Amino acid sequence: MTTRDASLRSSLLVAGPSTEDDPFGVVGWGLFVSLSCIWGASFLLIAMGLEALPPGVVTFARVGLGALFLALLPRERVRFEAGDQARLVVMSILWVAVPFTLFPIAEQHINSAVTGLLNGATPIVAAAIAAVFLGRPPHRLQTVGIAVGFLGIVLISVPSLSEGTSEAASVLMVLFATVCYGISINIAPALQHRYGSVNVMARMLALATIWTAPWGLWALDKVRFAWTPWLATAVLGIVGTGLAFAMMASMVRRVGATRASLIAYLLPVVALVLGVAVNGDRVTPGALVGVVLILIGAALASRAKRG
């Protein structure tokens, strides 16, 4: 290994094989839509779980069930090198432990739809980090798509940002979670290329289970039994975490970190639909315009680079 290779391997963000210029294709679009629906619904499932479970228990159950699901999948076992183990620890904290802890806390003060809407900032962060640290700035169509999608997020979110101190603090928690996502999603591709997507995600969730266990176990005495919240949390863990992370791993490998993060643009659509259908939320004309802009932005940002 050369000195340059050793230096690159010792850094936190290491560029994997570039797939940013490849078209999505049928499988890519299938993963894109499926993940948008699954993670868009996760915010409602969190809110349902909070009806009987404390935030710490919701997080611990979600991460633990997700880790168990991936642990049971058949796969070739691999041995992670020391430097990559450190990256996995960082990913387990930034991609799982921190955001999954913050979401239930935030949803005690803002509704599930708003939480989903604010996740639209993720592609902006992921693209900025890729540009600065990996030398992969988005091409023109992707830049336009990101800008248009972000405008849609603003139109949907602004009315909810001036409702009080608790709501403002919760909004900041969710936005900080998107920053964590933007960093971790750029660490993942190189590790997945070396060790396999499911192996990386399984190890990451196993580590995150350890980090989230203390708060979850400490709050167990506050748990109440109710079928709907318990089932919602189980679905959140098995489908919304275990299965979803396996799918996300495949998507990042296929289309790259920046474009994979664009699923955050469809999360508000799912969150709004579920909010109206399940909770009877009102949708303003501005929010409807925002949804249209989000869809246009996602379509533009997913286009392959020409020439």
The major β-sheet equals: none
User: What is the residue-averaged pLDDT?
Assistant: 82
Structural class: mainly alpha
Question: What is the H/E string?
Answer: HHHHHHHHHHHHH
Poorly predicted residue ranges:
1-10
Helix content: over 70%
> What kind of assembly state do the chains in view correspond to?
single chain
Treating each run of at least 4 consecutive H or I residues as one helix, how many helices? 13
Short description:
By secondary structure, the protein is mostly helical. It has 13 helices and no strands.
Describe the protein in words:
Mean pLDDT is 82; it is low at 1-10. The chain has helices at 3-10, 25-49, 55-71, 82-106, 112-118, 122-134, 140-157, 165-195, 197-218, 227-255, 257-260, 267-279, 285-301. The longest helix has 31 residues, at 165-195. The two termini are 34 Å apart. The chain is built from 13 helices and no strands.
